[in-house]
Amino acid sequence: MPHYGDLQATIYGAGLRGVIPKLPVDYAGLVRRAEAAMPPQVLAYVQGGCGDEWTQDENAAAFHHWGMVPRMMVDCSQRDLSIELFGLRLPSPVFMAPIGVNGICTQDGHGDIAAATASALTGVPFCASTLSNDPMEVVAKALSPSPGFFQLYTPRNRELAQSLVSRAEVAGYKALIVTLDTWVTGWRPRDLNTSNFPQLRGAVLANYFSDPVFRSLLTKAPEEDLPAAIAAWANVFGQVLTWDDVTWLRSLSSMPLVLKGICHPDDARRAVESGVDAIYCSNHGGRQANGGVAAIDMLSEVVRAAGSTPVLFDSGVRSGSDVVKAIALGAAAVGVGRPYVYGLALGGAEGAAHVLRCILAEADLLMAVNGYPTLKHVRDEGARSLVRSSGRLSAI
């Protein structure tokens, strides 16, 4: 059977014919190319974090404090990275995390469609954001045959929330992921220093401008009076949610409900008690709050508190080895964000697909070399072998 790691043989084989990859296969190389290619304001928004960006940097750096201990004499000639999630059989544990500015990361302004196309090319599920340059229905069509999830920034208007979620369900999205930490935007110096907030310039608001409930709130259509439509969006964005709202959120659709932003074990237990279908451990990549603990360092406690409820994870994932470490610490699925965005910027759908394939190849080969033929082995053996370095190694 083919394996994701076979990509390296394909690359080496092409090299014998004088063909080298059009895009780097490593994250650092992607960043360098993207910094040279992306418009400065878009690059600042994608790269920027909250405050002095300590938490954002720590999210990525903390992965280097965790290490997998290899197990030898294990037959890993056949490997299986598939998972079951939301009643779906998925080929790998990787998914594309929601990114609200995908749309402006490609030159044609249709980055959401390009991201969905990358999902279709790789089988990696795409989590579509409420903030999009194309309506969710159009994005969903580009996903086939891959499944998609819909991420909701809950508006203050409940009728609008119901409309957005209903549209997502009708369009075929397979889960509703509600972001909890973005009812107000964190302090982001890179954007503030350039006075740049894309949504206030009319970007990535297609889901609102195409929504009948939102349009009913306007005196004139967005295409007739864009400033008024933007002001209406700013007025309706950002509902403060409490645990009392979970029942209402569950009533919006029959899609599995996922709460995104859970980092404390007590919150994880409360979420399970409230009946959610999954928990999403994330600190928004360090974009919303600074001074926090790296997300990967909070993952295992959240997993333990969640019990049998699956835990999705993102924040700081840059490579295939990061994916495997998150799985070893208990994640059911792992979201990749900035890396695929750089791929979008450099090569559209094919660029993002290239990045995802490289991440999957590295994860697959790490499992092969370290003696973990399946994700169950990663969780069972890998979790026992995972060690954290803080001057010296100590087993968990």
Structural class: alpha/beta
Tell me how many strands there are: 13
Q: Strand fraction band?
A: 5-15%
**CATH topology value:** TIM Barrel
Please work out how many helical segments DSSP would assign: 17
Strand order of the largest sheet: 4-11-10-9-8-7-6-5
Backbone CA Rg: 21 Å
Largest sheet: 8 strands, parallel
**Percent of residues in helices:** 40-55%
Q: Characterize the overall form.
A: globular
Write the topology of this structure.
Elements: H1 7-16, H2 27-37, H3 40-47, H4 54-61, E1 66-67, E2 83-85, E3 88-90, E4 94-96, H5 111-122, E5 126-129, H6 136-143, E6 148-152, H7 158-171, E7 176-179, H8 189-193, H9 206-209, H10 212-216, H11 226-236, H12 246-251, E8 257-260, H13 265-273, E9 278-281, H14 295-306, E10 311-313, H15 320-328, E11 333-336, H16 338-370, H17 375-385, E12 387-389, E13 393-395
Parallel strand pairs: 4-11, 5-6, 6-7, 7-8, 8-9, 9-10, 10-11
Antiparallel strand pairs: 1-12, 2-3, 12-13
Write up this protein.
44% of the residues lie in helices and 11% in strands. The longest helix is centred in the last third of the chain and has 33 residues, at 338-370. The relative contact order is 0.19. The protein is of the alpha/beta class and 396 residues long. Mean pLDDT is 95; it is low at 391-396. It has 17 helices and 13 strands. It has a single domain (4-388), classed as TIM Barrel (Alpha-Beta Barrel). It starts with 6 loop residues before the first helix and ends with a strand.
List keywords for this structure.
single chain, alpha/beta, TIM Barrel, 8-stranded parallel beta sheet, 3-stranded antiparallel beta sheet, 17 helices, 13 strands, 11% strand
